[in-house]
Protein backbone atom coordinates (compact mmCIF):
# COMPACT_ATOMS: atom_id res chain seq x y z
CA UNK A 1 0.00 0.00 0.00
CA UNK A 2 2.83 2.36 0.89
CA UNK A 3 4.55 1.66 -2.44
CA UNK A 4 1.32 2.46 -4.32
CA UNK A 5 1.01 5.81 -2.51
CA UNK A 6 4.60 6.72 -3.30
CA UNK A 7 4.22 5.87 -7.01
CA UNK A 8 0.94 7.81 -7.20
CA UNK A 9 2.59 10.85 -5.60
CA UNK A 10 5.47 10.77 -8.06
CA UNK A 11 3.12 10.55 -11.05
CA UNK A 12 1.02 13.40 -9.75
CA UNK A 13 4.09 15.60 -9.30
CA UNK A 14 5.35 14.86 -12.82
CA UNK A 15 1.96 15.71 -14.33
CA UNK A 16 1.87 18.97 -12.46
CA UNK A 17 5.31 19.85 -13.83
CA UNK A 18 4.29 19.03 -17.40
CA UNK A 19 1.08 21.03 -17.13
CA UNK A 20 2.78 24.15 -15.80
CA UNK A 21 2.80 27.06 -18.29
CA UNK A 22 6.02 27.88 -20.14
CA UNK A 23 8.10 30.73 -18.78
CA UNK A 24 7.27 34.08 -20.32
CA UNK A 25 10.69 34.15 -22.03
CA UNK A 26 9.69 31.08 -24.05
CA UNK A 27 6.02 31.82 -24.67
CA UNK A 28 6.83 34.38 -27.37
CA UNK A 29 9.07 32.06 -29.35
CA UNK A 30 7.84 30.21 -32.40
CA UNK A 31 8.97 26.64 -32.78
CA UNK A 32 7.24 26.05 -36.12
CA UNK A 33 9.66 24.82 -38.80
CA UNK A 34 10.21 27.11 -41.78
CA UNK A 35 11.29 26.31 -45.32
CA UNK A 36 12.26 29.88 -46.17
CA UNK A 37 15.86 30.16 -47.31
CA UNK A 38 18.16 32.84 -45.94
CA UNK A 39 18.73 35.77 -48.24
CA UNK A 40 22.21 34.53 -49.09
CA UNK A 41 20.61 31.66 -51.00
CA UNK A 42 18.48 33.85 -53.22
CA UNK A 43 19.50 33.84 -56.86
CA UNK A 44 20.00 37.33 -58.24
CA UNK A 45 19.13 37.60 -61.93
CA UNK A 46 21.97 38.70 -64.16
CA UNK A 47 21.58 42.39 -64.84
CA UNK A 48 20.24 43.37 -61.44
CA UNK A 49 23.32 45.55 -60.93
CA UNK A 50 22.33 47.70 -63.87
CA UNK A 51 20.76 51.05 -63.06
CA UNK A 52 17.57 51.57 -65.02
CA UNK A 53 16.67 55.13 -65.98
CA UNK A 54 14.33 56.85 -68.38
CA UNK A 55 15.28 57.71 -71.94
CA UNK A 56 15.93 61.39 -72.47
CA UNK A 57 15.04 62.71 -75.90
CA UNK A 58 14.99 66.11 -77.52
CA UNK A 59 11.69 67.96 -77.38
CA UNK A 60 10.30 70.12 -80.19
CA UNK A 61 11.54 73.33 -78.59
CA UNK A 62 14.82 71.90 -77.34
CA UNK A 63 13.59 71.00 -73.87
CA UNK A 64 14.32 67.60 -72.38
CA UNK A 65 11.55 65.05 -72.74
CA UNK A 66 11.30 61.36 -71.87
CA UNK A 67 10.51 58.37 -74.04
CA UNK A 68 8.64 55.83 -71.95
CA UNK A 69 8.89 53.14 -74.65
CA UNK A 70 12.63 52.52 -74.26
CA UNK A 71 14.47 51.79 -71.02
CA UNK A 72 18.01 53.02 -70.45
CA UNK A 73 20.47 50.90 -68.45
CA UNK A 74 23.58 52.48 -66.97
CA UNK A 75 26.30 49.82 -66.99
CA UNK A 76 29.24 52.15 -66.45
CA UNK A 77 29.91 50.88 -62.91
CA UNK A 78 30.62 47.35 -64.13
CA UNK A 79 34.18 46.11 -64.58
CA UNK A 80 35.43 45.34 -68.07
CA UNK A 81 38.25 43.18 -69.38
CA UNK A 82 39.69 44.46 -72.63
CA UNK A 83 40.82 41.70 -75.03
CA UNK A 84 44.58 41.50 -75.37
CA UNK A 85 44.54 42.39 -79.06
CA UNK A 86 42.53 45.56 -78.37
CA UNK A 87 44.59 46.90 -75.46
CA UNK A 88 45.59 50.44 -76.36
CA UNK A 89 42.69 50.78 -78.79
CA UNK A 90 39.95 50.99 -76.15
CA UNK A 91 39.73 53.28 -73.12
CA UNK A 92 37.33 52.17 -70.33
CA UNK A 93 37.08 55.79 -69.15
CA UNK A 94 35.04 56.54 -72.26
CA UNK A 95 31.32 55.70 -72.19
CA UNK A 96 28.87 55.29 -75.04
CA UNK A 97 25.18 54.77 -75.57
CA UNK A 98 24.17 51.81 -77.72
CA UNK A 99 20.69 50.81 -78.85
CA UNK A 100 19.72 47.14 -78.64
CA UNK A 101 16.71 45.34 -80.04
CA UNK A 102 15.94 41.71 -79.21
CA UNK A 103 12.79 40.39 -80.85
CA UNK A 104 11.04 43.74 -80.51
CA UNK A 105 12.24 44.40 -76.96
CA UNK A 106 14.21 47.64 -77.17
CA UNK A 107 16.69 49.11 -74.73
CA UNK A 108 19.49 51.65 -74.59
CA UNK A 109 22.66 50.83 -72.65
CA UNK A 110 25.29 53.25 -71.42
CA UNK A 111 28.46 51.17 -71.44
CA UNK A 112 32.15 51.68 -70.73
CA UNK A 113 34.47 51.33 -73.70
CA UNK A 114 35.80 47.79 -73.49
CA UNK A 115 32.48 46.09 -72.74
CA UNK A 116 31.35 43.90 -75.63
CA UNK A 117 27.89 44.29 -77.09
CA UNK A 118 27.08 40.77 -75.88
CA UNK A 119 28.12 41.60 -72.31
CA UNK A 120 25.81 44.61 -72.38
CA UNK A 121 22.95 42.55 -73.80
CA UNK A 122 23.37 39.93 -71.06
CA UNK A 123 22.91 42.61 -68.42
CA UNK A 124 19.60 43.69 -69.93
CA UNK A 125 17.91 40.69 -71.55
CA UNK A 126 17.29 37.38 -69.80
CA UNK A 127 17.68 35.39 -73.01
CA UNK A 128 20.43 37.21 -74.90
CA UNK A 129 21.60 34.55 -77.39
CA UNK A 130 25.18 33.27 -77.13
CA UNK A 131 27.09 30.02 -76.86
CA UNK A 132 30.87 29.89 -77.27
CA UNK A 133 31.85 33.55 -76.60
CA UNK A 134 34.90 32.96 -78.82
CA UNK A 135 33.64 34.32 -82.11
CA UNK A 136 33.15 30.89 -83.65
CA UNK A 137 29.60 29.57 -83.29
CA UNK A 138 27.76 32.71 -84.60
CA UNK A 139 24.95 32.20 -82.04
CA UNK A 140 25.33 35.78 -80.79
CA UNK A 141 25.18 37.32 -84.27
CA UNK A 142 23.40 40.65 -84.71
CA UNK A 143 22.51 42.96 -87.56
CA UNK A 144 24.37 46.25 -87.24
CA UNK A 145 21.77 48.96 -87.83
CA UNK A 146 23.99 51.86 -86.81
CA UNK A 147 27.74 52.33 -86.79
CA UNK A 148 30.69 51.48 -89.02
CA UNK A 149 33.39 48.92 -88.35
CA UNK A 150 36.77 50.48 -87.60
CA UNK A 151 35.31 53.90 -86.92
CA UNK A 152 32.45 53.33 -84.49
CA UNK A 153 33.22 49.82 -83.26
CA UNK A 154 36.11 47.36 -83.30
CA UNK A 155 36.20 43.59 -83.70
CA UNK A 156 38.41 41.42 -81.52
CA UNK A 157 38.09 38.35 -83.73
CA UNK A 158 36.84 38.80 -87.27
CA UNK A 159 35.35 35.39 -88.06
CA UNK A 160 32.37 36.08 -90.31
CA UNK A 161 32.66 35.72 -94.07
CA UNK A 162 32.70 38.73 -96.34
CA UNK A 163 29.15 38.25 -97.60
CA UNK A 164 27.84 38.07 -94.04
CA UNK A 165 29.61 41.27 -93.06
CA UNK A 166 28.54 42.97 -96.27
CA UNK A 167 24.96 42.18 -95.30
CA UNK A 168 25.56 44.00 -92.00
CA UNK A 169 26.08 41.14 -89.54
CA UNK A 170 28.61 40.89 -86.72
CA UNK A 171 29.10 38.66 -83.70
CA UNK A 172 28.29 40.64 -80.56
CA UNK A 173 30.79 38.74 -78.39
CA UNK A 174 33.58 40.23 -80.52
CA UNK A 175 32.13 43.72 -81.03
CA UNK A 176 33.38 46.67 -78.95
CA UNK A 177 31.85 50.13 -79.38
CA UNK A 178 34.14 53.18 -79.45
CA UNK A 179 31.85 55.89 -80.79
CA UNK A 180 28.27 57.11 -80.60
CA UNK A 181 25.43 56.07 -82.86
CA UNK A 182 25.81 52.29 -82.71
CA UNK A 183 22.72 50.08 -82.73
CA UNK A 184 22.21 46.34 -83.05
CA UNK A 185 19.35 43.95 -83.78
CA UNK A 186 20.15 40.83 -81.78
CA UNK A 187 19.23 37.21 -82.39
CA UNK A 188 20.22 36.95 -86.07
CA UNK A 189 21.95 33.57 -85.96
CA UNK A 190 19.49 31.95 -88.36
CA UNK A 191 20.05 34.64 -90.99
CA UNK A 192 23.83 34.36 -90.69
CA UNK A 193 23.61 30.58 -90.90
CA UNK A 194 21.48 30.82 -94.02
CA UNK A 195 24.01 33.11 -95.68
CA UNK A 196 26.83 30.72 -94.84
CA UNK A 197 25.24 27.34 -95.49
CA UNK A 198 21.97 28.01 -97.27
CA UNK A 199 23.45 27.48 -100.73
CA UNK A 200 24.78 24.07 -99.69
CA UNK A 201 21.39 23.07 -98.36
CA UNK A 202 19.74 24.18 -101.59
CA UNK A 203 22.20 22.10 -103.62
CA UNK A 204 21.67 19.11 -101.34
CA UNK A 205 17.89 19.45 -101.54
CA UNK A 206 18.17 19.68 -105.34
CA UNK A 207 20.14 16.45 -105.44
CA UNK A 208 17.53 14.73 -103.32
CA UNK A 209 14.80 15.99 -105.62
CA UNK A 210 16.67 14.63 -108.66
CA UNK A 211 16.92 11.23 -107.00
CA UNK A 212 13.22 11.27 -106.23
CA UNK A 213 12.40 12.14 -109.83
TrEMBL record:
Domain 2Fe-2S ferredoxin-type: 96-190
Signal peptide region: 1-16
Cofactor annotation: [2Fe-2S] cluster
Molecular function terms, GO-annotated: 2 iron, 2 sulfur cluster binding; metal ion binding
Chain coiled-coil ranges: none
Pfam assignment, any one: Fer2
Alphabetized PANTHER family for the sequence: FERREDOXIN, FERREDOXIN-2, CHLOROPLASTIC
Protein family per UniProt: Belongs to the 2Fe2S plant-type ferredoxin family.
The protein's name: 2Fe-2S ferredoxin-type domain-containing protein
Amino acid sequence: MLVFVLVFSLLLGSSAFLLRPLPSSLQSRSFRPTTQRPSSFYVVRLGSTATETETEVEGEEGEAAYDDDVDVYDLTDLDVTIPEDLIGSLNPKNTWEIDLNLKGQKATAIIPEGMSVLEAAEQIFEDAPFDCRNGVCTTCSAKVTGGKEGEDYLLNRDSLEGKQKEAGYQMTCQTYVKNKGCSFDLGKHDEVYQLQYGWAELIESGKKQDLMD
